[in-house]
Design brief:
binds flavin-adenine dinucleotide; FAD/NAD(P)-binding domain; globular; single chain; eight-stranded mixed β-sheet
Length: about 400
């Protein structure tokens, strides 16, 4: 019997576990496999240090600029070298371990090799989680259950809080970690918006290592084959030229879905249960950035759980505090606006984006607007969008 049972020890679940354990609660953190490398670009902005200052000591690969390309390879580069904190790129195996270890250090009980597959119900309320280990089935009872087991979550559907993902609600991406000699700028991330709804990336991980990937989203998941577009992206002469690598080795590769339409705000909580992270849609539409928003959702859910347990009221009404958390509300609002910008970005095979980058390269005022939009989540005015549309 635990105060809180959390299914999934990724960034979202581990952050919740850390906060709750620090407060003195008994936390069970259930994880399918701590050796699983979450398919991911591993790019994280400097905001991560606010939540995990100890990451600096791990000496992560520093990123100090971004180079963005539209479908026809119009380019906009922005550097923050010397002017603000650095972003980082990390191998997810390493990042997730550091984040998970802070939960364990705080006192959370990690149960590895446990696959959550169902709830234990009492009076139509979930009071625990059933798992399978390689040798047996187990039951973890808790006052509050936090479901943080990502996109493949069976519990989210069994909870009744949300339905199975529809293909149009998703992004589908394939990525790889490659080792070899390459000449792409080492402290710069490269993002390639495609002429269809999708993007590719090259994220350096060190001197001779990088993460490369690409994917589609929404209806273009149906129109494009993921393996084909990955192959085309990797072998595109522009990309080959940028990497100028002759010998390389793929040390890992995988494909995985991500939410593409923002937070599922009607699916966040019910009596003694909350959904957090990818599972609840905490991934930024367009950019696919989900590590930071998932951590924010984990923190907010932990806050709501603490208040509910202290006040001995774990009802749906009490857990509403999770959704009302100002940071969660900000994310919901921001993702909604971003979703509404998708059509503009990809109209006419990405022509608006090419025009936007060209204009930003010519005019400092526009440059500021575009940089603020991509890097600082600002949403430009309607006038800005209509000016871009008017350009030939
Ligand atoms: C290809 C790709 C590239 C991406 N690139 C970036 C990027 O560069 N930057 C960025 O910020 N975001 C990126 N994202 C999004 C980011 O990976 C996610 O938003 C983030 O990992 C969400 O964290 P989470 O804790 O919610 O879920 P996850 O990281 O998926 O963690 C879920 C955890 O639950 C465990 N689990 C799953 N099922 C069970 C079960 N049944 N029982 C027990 N445990 C279970 C898993 O093993 C895992 O540890 C990318 C996503 C994809 C698919």
């Amino acid at each position: 019997m635990f105060d809180i049972v959390i299914s999934g020890a990724g960034p979202a679940g581990s952050k919740s576990a850390e906060i709750l354990a620090k407060k003195g609660f008994e936390v069970a953190l259930i994880e399918r496999d701590t050796n699983w490398r979450k398919p991911c670009g591993g790019g994280v902005s400097s905001r991560i240090f606010k939540y995990f200052p100890q990451l600096r000591k791990a000496n992560p690969h520093k990123i100090e600029s971004i180079s963005m390309y539209s479908g026809d390879y119009s380019n906009l580069k922005y550097s923050w070298k010397g002017s603000r904190d650095y972003s980082i790129n990390m191998d997810r195996l390493e990042l997730d371990n550091i984040i998970r270890n802070s939960a364990i250090d705080a006192g959370a009980h990690l149960f590895d090799n446990n696959l959550s597959y169902d709830f234990i119900w009492k009076n139509q309320k979930p009071i625990g989680i059933k798992t399978k280990t390689p040798s047996e089935t187990k039951e973890y009872l808790g006052n509050i259950l936090i479901i943080a087991d990502g996109m493949s979550s069976k519990l989210a559907i069994k909870s009744g809080l949300r339905k199975k993902w529809k293909i149009e609600e998703l992004g589908l991406a394939k990525c790889a970690i490659i080792e070899g000699d390459f000449s792409v700028e080492n402290n710069c991330i490269h993002v390639f918006f495609r002429p269809y709804k999708g993007y590719g990336w090259i994220f350096p991980l060190g001197e001779n290592r990088f993460n490369i990937g690409c994917g589609t989203f929404q209806e273009d998941n149906r129109n494009y084959n993921l393996n084909n577009i990955y192959h085309e992206f990797f072998n595109d002469p522009f990309i080959k030229d940028l990497l100028s690598t002759t010998t390389y080795k793929t040390i890992w590769s995988a494909s995985y879905p991500l939410p593409a339409l923002g937070v599922k705000k009607k699916s966040l909580y019910s009596d003694n249960m909350m959904l957090i992270g990818d599972n609840a849609g905490f991934v930024s539409p367009i950019s696919g950035e989900g590590i930071h928003p998932s951590i924010v959702s984990g923190q907010a859910a932990a806050g709501a759980a603490i208040q509910a347990l202290e006040e001995e009221n774990i009802s749906k009404e009490a857990l509403k505090q999770y959704k009302l958390n100002p940071n969660v509300r900000k994310i919901i609002r921001n993702f909604k606006l971003k979703t509404s910008m998708v059509e503009f970005f990809y109209e006419q095979k990405g022509r608006n984006l090419s025009n936007m980058f060209r204009l930003a390269n010519q005019n400092d005022k526009y440059r500021e607007i575009v940089v603020d939009m991509f890097l600082f989540n600002a949403v430009p005015s309607k006038e800005f969008f209509s000016e871009i549309r008017k350009l030939k």
